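Changelog-adjacent note: as of this version, every example in the card shows the full chain rather than a window. The one below runs 276 residues end to end.
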Amino acid sequence: MQASVLSRIHHRNLVGLVGFCKDNKVLGVVYEYVAQGSLRDNLSEKAGGGGLNWRQRLRIAIETASGLEYLHKGCRPPVIHRDVKTSNILLDHNLEAKIADFGLSKTFQTDANTHVSTDVVVGTPGYVDPEYHNTYQLNEKSDVYSFGVVLLELVTGLPPVLRYPESGHIVQWVRQRLTKADISEVVDSRLEGQYDINSIVKVIDIAMSCINTDGSKRPTMSEVVMQLKESLQVEASQERGNSNGNFVEGVYKSPSVSVEMGRLDMANTVSGPMAR
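Full-length structure tokens:
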């Protein structure tokens, strides 16, 4: 993306541009320092991550979604990030999320355009929208797909491409375990059961809608923000305490969980292709 476009983008959940310079046709861009590193580092066991609780993860999801919503709806012309991933979501000293790295971003020339045609598919393995990969036609729903993968990372604590103890894609891994309707097989064990199960199920439901193979059936980022805020409200109500006796060891045991699990649309989700 042109530096002139970057300089006009201002949102609390986007990493701020400090300055840029051009020397011998090489553009250097300087962003604000973000103290707590990337979300991937904060989720990775190898990096000593995993200390984020569920409410913190939900807030990070909402803040990231808000940043993407601004790029898609608040910018003129609209901006597609094209490389949404947990290593491009940085956390400040208050653990507030900020989207970084706009090097692959594309803008629509006019608001009336439905997509941007590209000569080559770029992005990060595990996050690339299958529809974009097949058609070379990029739109905001490609970012929505990538964000769906990010949501699954927040739930599971796993990276998008799995290599140990088994290989595959996080979408496949989640789908296989959801068929057993056992949510404990999907949720990051480092959360130690400290979450409302209905909140978790809702986020998985949102993620599955984001990674639908048909981009037209994916939600907009505005809809995702609204749904994630509803999930946070569910989690907040649990933290205020439940008086019906179903709160055991930090987990709200809802009798509707099996019904909710059945709503998850897994038939239209597949793992993302590798970028070229």
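Structural remarks: Residues 37-263 form a domain with the Transferase(Phosphotransferase); domain 1 fold (CATH 1.10.510.10).
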